[in-house]
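The record is kept unedited without comment:

——
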Amino acid sequence: MCSLSGHERLHRTGRDGRLRLAFRRQGDKTILRDSFSTMPVQAFQPFYHDGAGCACTYIVNPAGGLAGGDRIYMDITLDDYAHALVTTPSANRVYRSTGDFSLQEVRIAAGKGAVIEYMPGYVIPFAGSMYRQKTGIFLQEGAAAFILDFFTPGRVARGEYMLFREYSSLTGVEYCGEPVLTERVVLRPGAVGYGGPGFLESSTAMAVIYLVFDNPSAERGLVSALHAMASGMEGVYGGVSTLPSRGVVIRLLGEGVRFVEKAILEIWSAARKTILGTAALSRLHWT
């Protein structure tokens, strides 16, 4: 295995960001037991928005976004029965690249009975950008995961609709070592006209919510509730399907980010109430 030279490491400083967060249950709440980060990625100290003991933290990029060639690696661990919500205070901007792609890799491991809510803000790929993300979730017995993949086709208000070069997202989930979900999305607008009929059409925001948990009775009630919600959302087309085992997938296409954000909040609230017996945050802050 080759390693970077001192000159190469210096050249990559501020471009290869690493974040490690480890949570554990302490009494009636979850605490952050270990953390480490390097630019350009950092995390805030956890806060508690309700009485459920969930540790909530924001991941931030002080640089404001990802440039071509940037690499972000995040490793999040939850000990048994820990509960953490990891989100971002704003959208994830991906800037134009003249050469290399931007990459974000996230690995989340949740122990027995743990709950991870990974709900980052939406990705905005600027014109000429190339972005790839990989999200791997590894759950032990009784664990649950709420995972959001939220995307816009560019800075639409500036006329940048599908002007990026590549957007790629790979999501995989394992439960007790068994693969329960693998999904890959690759968009290359230069090769395919995704704005036409049968594709995204006029949609300017897209989201997928993955709810992975092991409770068949709760799943049946949740699916019925989500079907009813999806048919009545303003400015959003939604679909609900079940995984072959342990979970539900909700797909959303919207006429704008704010419509999809509202739909995500409604779905997230229903899922939290059904699966966890607790309420969701009252609002999101992905400005």
Observations:
- The first strand starts at residue 16 and ends at 26.
